[in-house]
Amino acid sequence: MRAEHDPPPALDVTIQHPTRLAVMAFLSGCLEAEFAAVRDYARISDASVSRIVSALQDAGYVKVRKGCVGKRPRTWLSLSREGRQALAGHLDALQSIAETARRTATDPGARSTTP
Q: Which InterPro entries does this one have (predicted)?
């Protein structure tokens, strides 16, 4: 639990968008996922997956592996160690925010707005 005057927890701006967060969460549940599986899970277009993966890859959060299955090209995605750490930190921050909101919603006097 945070002290009353601690600064709010820091969300990771790279993954705070709901679709990026969904992609990161999906990838956290597997060692590696095929591009199409990520696309289908997030219910977004190939172009959107590509943009999201590029941003996450630039941040060092996602690894991309290309290869072939038979004669068909495939792309596999996975979280890097840094990506897993960033996701865990982001989820911790969200949890802290949610706990504060829950506490103050049930006890409006739990947080003072005066010094």
A: WH-like_DNA-bd_sf, WH_DNA-bd_dom, WH_DNA-bd_sf
